């Protein structure tokens, strides 16, 4: 049996980048994942029609943090890519985030100009605001516009996506897609917006390509874990430290009950046509069942593909018995309290570090997950005197 300095559960960006940093510092690391592939939710593959698709939904890396961009560029080449998205409301496809084009799409010219003037007066100097702020502003015409979008998009989308009504959900989640006060039709505002020139799978292969890293796939970690005398023990290795990036309720055998997550079911389709929709990602808030359709070839304009593959996303409750995947933590007052109990328990275990989108129970983007992972590895190396 081999002995390791660190056992890392989860081969997404969090686990894989920590594994690499510790391996570079001379530690022997085993990284384990229950899936049959590396990359966590960023995994991509070429489908049976020869088109590169993202298995768990479209992933664009976006950040303002240069350290993160430098880090990912060490392991792969990346192309600039600025994703554009739309939403279909009353049969009309309008940009998402909603912008001044949306006002032009749904208002007569004179009314549209009046609304834009009011927005510029009320939110002078602001390029975006969360829809909830527009809903509660003093100007009735702006309020009406925000109400139209809230009723026909935000609340319907939220109800489908989260399985609960919009007023039960944490405002930070609804605020993720703001209202824009210009004609900018890019989805993200960050300075750096990139996707791998080759693939996420190739990026992860390069990140994990180190003689000190040992990879074990198709392995459910919790089955190998025991707790004794305030320590976590993986496969009998008492001295190793464990870095765990999975869900905390699973790690502690649901001691305080289940943490709620939302899942997604992806329906994959192919059509022998040049283009399925105008934009890479289009949301359909008013359609029953699914939230959005992602047409992957539009993410790779340099590649030429015959036909088009697209994924239709159906939000589902996450159920352990159904063996679906926990994608989004459902952040409510109750779930945050329950999570805090698990976090306290995790913190009491001397040789355990929990981080990542699942273990931190946070709606991290890739850059936030990577930033957290780099902080964790910096702290470990500092503690070890490296
Ligand atoms: C549909 C969708 C679209 C997204 N789009 C974007 C985007 O465009 N831009 C962006 O920045 N972010 C996006 N994200 C977020 C992004 O996926 C995450 O920020 C990132 O993948 C988090 O990485 P992670 O390593 O923390 O977690 P994950 O990628 O979830 O990796 C965790 C890994 O741990 C494994 N694991 C868990 N428990 C166990 C266990 N007990 N035993 C063994 N293995 C275990 C899992 O199998 C998984 O592979 C998107 C997410 C989703 C769901």
In short:
The protein is of the alpha/beta class and 386 residues long.
Verbal overview:
It is built from eleven helices and 21 strands. It is α/β, with parallel strands linked by helices and 386 residues long. Among the domains are: 6-38 and 208-259 and 330-383, Rossmann fold, CATH 3.40.50.720; 97-180, no CATH class. A seven-stranded mixed beta sheet has the order 8-7-17-18-19-16-20. The chain has a five-stranded parallel beta sheet with strand order 12-2-1-15-21. Bound molecules: flavin-adenine dinucleotide. Residues 9-15, 32-35, 40-42, 56-61, 220-222, 245-246, 250, 327, 356-358, 364-367, 369 line the site of flavin-adenine dinucleotide.
List the helices and strands and how they pair.
Layout: E1 6-9, H1 13-24, E2 29-32, E3 44-46, E4 52-54, E5 61-63, H2 66-73, E6 78-80, E7 85-89, E8 92-96, H3 100-106, H4 109-122, E9 128-129, H5 131-135, H6 140-162, H7 171-174, E10 179-180, E11 192-196, H8 200-207, E12 213-216, E13 225-228, E14 231-234, E15 241-244, H9 248-251, E16 261-271, E17 281-283, E18 292-295, E19 308-317, E20 328-329, H10 333-347, E21 352-354, H11 366-383
Parallel strand pairs: 1-2, 1-15, 2-12, 7-17, 15-21
Antiparallel strand pairs: 3-4, 5-11, 6-11, 7-8, 9-10, 13-14, 16-19, 16-20, 17-18, 18-19
The structure holds flavin-adenine dinucleotide (FAD).
Can you give the helix content as a percent range?
25-40%
CATH superfamily label of the domain at 6-38 and 208-259 and 330-383: NAD(P)-binding Rossmann-like Domain
Shape: globular
CATH class of the domain at 6-38 and 208-259 and 330-383: Alpha Beta
The structure class reads alpha/beta
User: What's the CATH architecture of the domain at 6-38 and 208-259 and 330-383?
Assistant: 3-Layer(aba) Sandwich
State the end-to-end CA separation: 27 Å
* CATH fold call of the domain at 6-38 and 208-259 and 330-383: Rossmann fold
């Amino acid at each position: 049996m081999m002995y390791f300095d660190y056992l890392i559960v989860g081969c997404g960006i969090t686990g894989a980048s920590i594994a690499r940093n510790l391996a570079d510092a001379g530690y022997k690391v085993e990284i384990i994942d229950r899936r049959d592939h590396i990359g966590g939710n960023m995994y991509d593959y070429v489908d049976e029609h020869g088109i590169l698709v993202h298995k768990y939904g479209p992933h664009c890396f976006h950040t303002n943090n240069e350290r993160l961009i430098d880090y990912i560029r060490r392991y792969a080449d990346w192309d600039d890519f600025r994703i554009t998205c739309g939403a279909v409301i009353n049969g009309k496809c309008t940009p998402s985030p909603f912008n001044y084009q949306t006002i032009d799409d749904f208002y007569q010219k004179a009314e549209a100009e009046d609304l834009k003037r009011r927005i510029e007066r009320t939110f002078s100097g602001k390029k975006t605001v969360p829809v909830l702020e527009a809903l509660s502003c003093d100007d009735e015409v702006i309020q009406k516009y925000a109400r139209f979008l809230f009723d026909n998009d935000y609340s319907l989308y939220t109800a489908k996506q989260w399985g609960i009504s919009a007023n039960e959900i944490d405002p930070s989640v609804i605020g993720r897609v703001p209202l824009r006060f210009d004609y900018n039709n890019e989805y993200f505002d960050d300075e750096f917006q990139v996707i791998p020139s080759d693939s996420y799978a190739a990026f992860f292969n390069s990140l994990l390509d180190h003689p000190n890293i040992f990879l074990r796939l198709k392995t459910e970690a919790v089955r190998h874990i025991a707790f004794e005398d305030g320590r976590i023990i993986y496969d009998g290795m008492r001295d190793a430290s464990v870095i765990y990036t999975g869900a905390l309720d699973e790690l502690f055998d649901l001691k305080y009950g289940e943490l709620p997550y939302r899942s997604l079911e992806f329906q994959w389709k192919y059509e022998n046509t040049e283009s399925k929709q105008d934009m890479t990602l289009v949301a359909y808030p008013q359609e029953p069942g699914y939230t959005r359709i992602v047409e992957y070839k539009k993410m790779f304009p340099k590649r030429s593909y015959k036909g088009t593959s697209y994924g239709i996303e159906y939000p589902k409750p996450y159920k352990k018995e159904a063996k679906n995947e926990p994608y989004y933590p459902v952040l409510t007052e109750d779930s945050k309290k329950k999570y805090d109990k698990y976090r306290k328990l995790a913190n009491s275990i001397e040789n355990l570090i929990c981080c990542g989108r699942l273990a931190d129970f946070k709606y991290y983007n890739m850059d936030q997950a990577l930033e957290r992972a780099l902080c964790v590895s910096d702290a470990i190396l500092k503690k070890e005197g490296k």
